[in-house]
């Protein structure tokens, strides 16, 4: 089944470049393009895209505000931020506002394909170039946040470490010699037990509980 994408960027050349990259990836189709947040909301309702590739720096309605409106209007559409910004506060805001992934604009075609595949499989994706930034920001926030109570098993903690490090379900399954369904079950149980359902929250929890360190 084809995965339908909507491109949102106020620079036509950027959209053309991303569209060309997407069209080289089997199983994806660009069904529409928007040049600002207002047009995005119109097209989302008309086209019902599976994934929205969203720039943060746009005229009129900015990307962050557009993201919040999009998630309120059509929460089932997954959002992959495509931005040149590496500011940790901004990245955390996008993740907390419902973005499923964050990719830098100087990314490679291979990384774009990996990010799209992750979102298509109901996973999240952080560009490796900013993963350390997110962990640092989570560590900073953790200093003023009381630790939650939890009862994760040793296996769940092991899988949580791999999730936070950006490993896909398939990579975790292969590395631990488990089935994909088993890993998915563990992932679901982890999120339910922690009551954390986004990657930013999982990173914050993992850093605060010293499940991972900045050296990871």
Describe the structure.
The chain is α/β, with parallel strands linked by helices and 216 residues long. It folds into 2 domains: 3-126, Response regulator (Rossmann fold), CATH 3.40.50.2300; 137-208, Arc Repressor Mutant, subunit A, CATH 1.10.10.10. It contains 10 helices and 6 strands, in the order E-H-E-H-E-H-E-H-E-H-E-H-H-H-H-H. The protein has helices at residues 12-23, 37-47, 63-73, 88-96, 109-120, 128-142, 154-164, 169-176, 180-194, 199-208; strands at 3-8, 28-34, 51-54, 78-83, 101-104, 125-126. The chain has a 6-stranded parallel sheet, sandwiched between helices. The longest helix is centred in the middle third of the chain and has 15 residues, at 128-142. It is globular, with a radius of gyration of 17 Å. The model has no long low-confidence stretch (mean pLDDT 85).
Short account of what is shown:
Helices cover 53% and strands 13% of the residues. It has a 6-stranded parallel β-sheet with strand order 2-1-3-4-5-6, sandwiched between helices.
